[in-house]
Write a structure and sequence with these properties.
This is Lysozyme. With 195 residues, the protein is mainly alpha-helical. It is built from ten helices and four strands, in the order αββααααααααββα.
């Protein structure tokens, strides 16, 4: 049975909100390695390490990347960690995406995160709440989102506690990071904005 948010998707405002949190001028438009277990990443979160070579070629050519560059980048399929770091450095100039291409890549990966919110949130939400939760899920990952107090509180009907729970996700490597504090404040503001 479909949940109450099954037909929701990120709004244009939500897409802009997420893009502005994820894109980094001079970084996300080129192949880069964000660190840790990530693969070579292009745009705001398109991780080549978790895709097949064929999928990479199809996705990149669909947004206007030249087939030669797409083929080169498809060699990053399956690479993570230091292998991805080495590949990203060696191929940093393989492509330089426009903002429109970065947004198109973001749209390609968004359905996964939308589906997480659709599946894990069992109470009806408004568009701003949905958009804020997709942003949170995109940043912390589906497993963390599913088990978060944001979802638990919201599903219990405690909207205020759900909003406050966003703020708990402000750490990286066990340390509070100001950029995450700022992002959570913006997500809470969006979540609390009436439609």
């Amino acid at each position: 049975m479909a949940g109450p948010n099954a037909n929701m998707s990120v709004s244009p405002n939500g897409l802009t909100f997420l893009y502005n949190r994820e894109a980094q001028a001079g970084v996300s438009n080129k192949p880069h390695w964000p660190g840790g277990g990530s693969g070579v990443t292009l745009g705001p979160g398109y991780d080549l390490g978790h895709r097949t070579a064929a999928q990479i070629v199809a996705d990149l050519t669909s947004i206007g990347v030249a087939s030669g560059a797409a083929e080169t980048l498809s060699n990053a399929a399956g690479l993570t960690g230091t292998d991805a770091q080495t590949f990203a450095k060696a191929n940093a100039n393989a492509v330089s995406l426009t903002q429109g291409q970065e947004e198109a890549l973001l749209k390609l990966v968004l359905p996964t995160y939308q589906q997480h919110v659709q599946n894990y949130v069992t109470v009806p939400v408004n568009q701003n709440q949905f958009d804020a939760m997709v942003s949170l899920d995109y940043n912390i990952g589906g497993g963390n989102f599913k088990n978060s107090s944001v979802v638990a509180n919201l599903n219990k009907g405690d909207v205020a506690a759900a909003a406050e729970s966003f703020k708990l996700w402000n750490k990286s490597g066990g340390k509070v990071v100001q950029g995450l504090v700022n992002r959570r404040e913006l997500e809470v503001a969006l979540f609390n904005t009436p439609v």
